[in-house]
Amino acid sequence: MELILDKNKCTGCGQCVEVCPFGAIELKDGLPVANDECRLCGVCVRKCPEGALALPEKAKKRDIQDARDVWVYAEQKGNDFTGVVYELLGKGRELAQTLGQRLVAVVIGHEVEKHAHKLINYGVDVAYVIDHPELKDFNEKKYAQVLIDLIKANQPNIFLAGATPRGRSLIPQVAAALETGLTADCTGLEIDPDTSLLLQTRPAYGGNIMATITCAHTRPQMATVRPHIFPRPEALSGHEGKIVKVEVEALPQGIEVLSFVQAEIEGPDLTEADVVIGVGRGIKGPENLKLIEKLACLLNAQIGGTRAVVDAGWLSHRYQIGQTGLTISPKLYIACGISGAVQHIVGIQSAKTIVAINKDPEAPIFEVADYGIVGDLFEVIPALIEEIKTRRGESS
Ligand SMILES: Cc1cc2nc3c(=O)[nH]c(=O)nc-3n(C[C@H](O)[C@H](O)[C@H](O)COP(=O)(O)OP(=O)(O)OC[C@H]3O[C@@H](n4cnc5c(N)ncnc54)[C@H](O)[C@@H]3O)c2cc1C
């Protein structure tokens, strides 16, 4: 397939040469000629002031009509799947139902078929199992190759994966090889009712705006999502799905993994906590964390904070919540002296109940809070502590 040139319209101005992101166009005898590097991306077509360039009809529709189903990469952790896999299956099921397509999971590893059956209970219609001794441990080159081959053979419409360390190294390679778009770290996924395109929302421009991105011209539409953005669905009973084993041909060699060492993580894991108290600049200084700790102790809560607090050195970066920190999904989140910047909100949006304490009634945190207390946290928190103790029959 080649770029189409209308020689009668072309003036040989060379704007297509300048604009081509792949450096694939040169002028020969005053007319543009595209070489093998041309991806038919259409940038030159849009730039040409004379309308002399066009894409071949097939390139415009490349695989789009044939692409079907919503796929989820089922990353494993020990004998189970990572939590984000279940969250993506819940969202994927919703998207697949809206489109009238199937939910498909891809499991890669060795002796993993027994685990794949578990996915059927989460609404998976087809689970592809790619089982090979060389795939026992994660290896991004090998995993990427089997995913690329499977996607090329089946043409999924949408492909979702967790924005985990593995997902972040694996999925961009797959997207690049398939020459399709990838939206990383999405915080929202919906189907556009008019175009049926996947609307992929994520923070952009340093988190100052939420951008909604579509992948209109290539398939699959690929997105990664951080853990705890979407709720984990309940298992379904009686859902029927099938396991399809995929034969592996030659696997690429190159990187040899000699051993794995489990990282030692000290301190509480905020992402697993039921109750989290978030502290912001409103606590004034690290000496006031003692007050927050008293409340945390009563509620069996973990303490996290905003980037402002972390930058000030009041809390370690391990406890930063938000776009450049953790995404949490506790049952209860209490925001103390936090303004509610969008970069913070993206980290707490799947908390079940949000309580905000802020002395500024206009603080944006109140827009996302289920319960808001307008007041000075140095008065509100001691009063809360007293009230909890009184209700529990404890003396101060
Ligand atoms: C690229 C980028 C990434 C970022 N990533 C993150 C991130 O991951 N996480 C994050 O949190 N931020 C992040 N930020 C920073 C974010 O934009 C905000 O600056 C930050 O969240 C503000 O923190 P804060 O709410 O503690 O402070 P402030 O915005 O200063 O808010 C303090 C609040 O405390 C209230 N207050 C003051 N005194 C009291 C009192 N006595 N009682 C009650 N309320 C009181 C004030 O009314 C105010 O609303 C990022 C920014 C950028 C540009």
Number of helices: 12
Radius of gyration: 26 Å
For the biggest sheet, the summary is: 7 strands, parallel
Unreliable sequence segments:
none
Give the helix proportion (percent range): 25-40%
Structural class: alpha/beta
Bound molecules: flavin-adenine dinucleotide
Round the mean pLDDT to the nearest integer and report it.
92
- β content, as a range? 15-25%
Number of β-strand runs: 21
Shape: globular
Q: State the end-to-end distance.
A: 79 Å
By CATH, the architecture of the largest domain is named 3-Layer(aba) Sandwich
- Classify the fold: give the CATH topology of the largest domain: Rossmann fold
How many structural domains does the protein architecture include?
3
CATH class (first level) name of the largest domain: Alpha Beta
Strand order of the biggest β-sheet? 11-15-10-5-8-9-16
CATH superfamily of the largest domain: HUPs
Features:
alpha/beta; Alpha-Beta Plaits; Rossmann fold; seven-stranded parallel β-sheet; five-stranded parallel β-sheet; 12 helices; 21 strands; globular
Detailed description of the structure:
The protein starts with a strand and ends in a 5-residue tail after the last helix. It has 396 residues and is an alpha/beta fold. It has helices at residues 15-19, 43-47, 57-60, 83-99, 113-120, 140-154, 165-178, 289-299, 307-311, 342-345, 365-368, 377-391, and strands at 4-5, 25-28, 31-34, 53-54, 68-73, 76-77, 80-81, 103-109, 126-131, 156-162, 182-186, 188-191, 198-204, 209-213, 221-225, 242-246, 275-279, 302-305, 332-336, 353-358, 371-374. The chain has 3 domains: 4-60, 2-Layer Sandwich (Alpha-Beta Plaits); 68-246, Rossmann fold, CATH 3.40.50.620; 270-391, Rossmann fold, CATH 3.40.50. The structure holds flavin-adenine dinucleotide.
